[in-house]
Structure formats: C-alpha cells, structure tokens
Amino acid sequence: MAAPDSDPNATPPTGEDAASELHQALSSEALDELDAVLEDVRERSEETPQWEFCDGFLTALVCTRRTVPVTEWLPMLLGSGIEIDDAQPGQPLPLQSDIFKDEAQQARFLELCGLRLNEVATQLDMDTDSLDSDDAFQPECMDMRGAILMLPDEGRAELEGQDIPSFAQVWALGFMFAVENWFEEWAAPRDKEAQKWIDESLEKIVAITEDDAGVPAVNLYDDQGPASTSRERVEQVGEAIWACYDLRQVWKSLGPRVETVRKAHEPGRNDLCPCGSGKKYKKCHGA
Asked: Could you tell me which residues belong to the region Disordered (predicted)?
C-alpha cells in the first residue's frame, strides 16, 4: 500500500514492499510464512483469523497493563480459549496439536509472534512526532477493498456480494478482541485523568471496527488504483495509532495492578470458635 499524502495522521505503506523497509523484525518473507502457517491451521479450525487480526491482537497485548503469558494468549487467539496449564518454566511450550501440525510449526509461529511483540513494544516506547517516521509504529492494516478493485473483472465478479472489510477494520477487531478477553486488566483506574485518557484512546480504536461509510478518495493498496478508502478513514486510523502510544504509556505510568488483600473476618471474643470446639473464641483459638 502507499500513503496518499504526507499528513502526520496518514499511514505509511503497509504492503509487502513496505514490510521489509518499516518492519525490520518481520520481512516480507516472514509475513508470507505467517500467512502460510495460519492457512494450514485454518484447515483444522475454520475460525482461524487472518494475520491482520493477529497483529491487532498482539498490539493490544503490548498495550495491556499486565504482561499476558503465551499460555493465556495463544489458546485465546487460535485455540479453545482455555489456558495451557501443563507448561514448565524454562521449557518449550507443549505441542498444541489441536492448533499446529508439529512442534516445529508451533515454535516458528511463536518465534515470529515474539519478534512482532518486541518490535511493537520498542516502537511504542520511542518518542516520535510523526507517523511517517521509519521507526514509528505501523500496524499491519490491509486495504482489502483497494486490492479487490485492482483485480481483473473475473476476479471481482467471484467476490461480488461478499462483505469486504474496510481499511484497518480487521486489525481493530483483533485489538478489541484482546481487550474484551482481558477486560479486568483494562478496568478503570482510580486516577480519573488516566481513566479519561484510556477511554478516549479505546474509543479511537473502536471507531475503526466500524465500516468506512465515507466517500472513497484514496487506494492504500496502490496509490494509482481506484479509490477504496475515505480520507476520514485514513485520519481515523492515524488517530488509532496514536492511541496505541497513549495506552502503552498510561499503563506503564500506572504500573502493575496492586491486588488488595482482605483480612479474614475475625470472630468476637465471646463468639463460638469457628474451629467447632464449642468453646468461646477467647477460650480457644483466640486465647
């Protein structure tokens, strides 16, 4: 894809040509490899998402207050949703045979996801004043409508009547899928200013889970192609990217959630002892 202009809120290219330039951790070959793994997994589970959804999901994990371990997020993304409970510290994750065909495929998928997680965290932790910067965070957002418009007439006819997602819509759905499944980690903090900051940031991401209802003006798959995306949508995606920076920073500033330890109720000295002895508490365990 190509950015339609140099607006700081515009998204730089996110297609194969741009991947090797802007995503040093994941080359175009690595992205193709991820697509191939997901396609293979899809043969065992039809609900397996596209990489764009996965990238939104992983980005949300980077922005979540608590570091979510792979034993939680992998089955939520690709499996049954049930946490893996037989993993041993310091050992490779046991093969999830309902997801991957073998240990090598699982290890490679996790390796590439780990690279992407580290890359997103590094980018969101860097100071930047423009999304056009080479080191700025760029989500793996697709302009499927733009790509379809570039197909020959026969190819477009085969897809006629299908619901084609808007630019970045699938990515945003992946992000919010993670938020919804770890909602306790996104619970409103006591700091009202931080709460407002989080709510406003999430609203910007939720906005692009909706369909692009604007007038098509640009094609993000090919800047010379037929218009597929509104300029309003491009601006919304830019705002969602800045929202990721804000969410990452606000949770880091608040630190880990502090669990409140509640003191167990202690019986009165003249109450019966809860041990069942029949004696008053002051004559038994309260002595």
From this structure: 1-20
